Amino acid sequence: MERAVVSGWATAVLTAVLAIITGYYAWEARASRRIAREQLDSLVRPIITASLVLRHNHMIYLRVANDGNSPALDLRLALDQETPAVSDLSALGQLPLFREGSACVPPGAQYFFVLGGAPLVLGDNTDFPLAFGVTASYKWRARAVSEHLVIDVGSYKGSQAAPRTEAEAIEYLTDELKKSLGART
């Protein structure tokens, strides 16, 4: 009789321990699935970026791109302050992508907006802000996403244009060759 009581008690303890272990592993599996889903989302989601590009012609461009792997739907861009129009160029906030947005920005899409010549944008006596923000709002997987991107213009002071790409170098050499051959005829 005593053996049956001990056996029943041991069975109850083992059952409780197994239930706790099973519950722990179920909780861990759920957490692992959540982490895996977040990692997958970070790999496939749209990534809207904004940065400055200094070109060899000493022009500075704002590059807005979808560097992610999914389309950004109903993209809206908003500036936290208006950038001044340089020369005969329109101010950023007046350009169609900023005013009206875009229904769909596919992965790899890039937009370049002329901010102006380097002396006018980066000069010491310029009205151009040292930094400004761009808020990109879009939809992805039926969720509203909003990202605030800071464009630090001041950090570009004293920097040089990026080295020419192969395509730019070929274009430059082609133009120089055309000029040279044109001068001989």
Q: How much helical structure, as a percent, in the residues?
A: 25-40%
Shape: elongated
* % residues in beta strands: 25-35%
Describe the largest sheet. 4 strands, antiparallel
Would you tell me the overall average pLDDT? 86
Radius of gyration: 29 Å
What's the quick description here?
The protein has 185 residues and is α+β, with helices and mostly antiparallel strands. It is 38% helix and 30% strand. It folds into two domains: 1-37; 48-161, Immunoglobulin-like (Sandwich), CATH 2.60.40.
Notes on the structure:
The protein has 185 residues and is of the alpha+beta class. The protein folds into two domains: 37 residues; 114 residues, Sandwich (Immunoglobulin-like). 38% of the residues lie in helices and 30% in strands. It contains four helices and seven strands, in the order αβββαββαββα. It has a four-stranded antiparallel sheet with strand order 4-3-6-7. A three-stranded antiparallel sheet has the order 1-2-5. The longest helix has 43 residues. The radius of gyration is 29 Å and the shape is elongated. The mean pLDDT is 86.
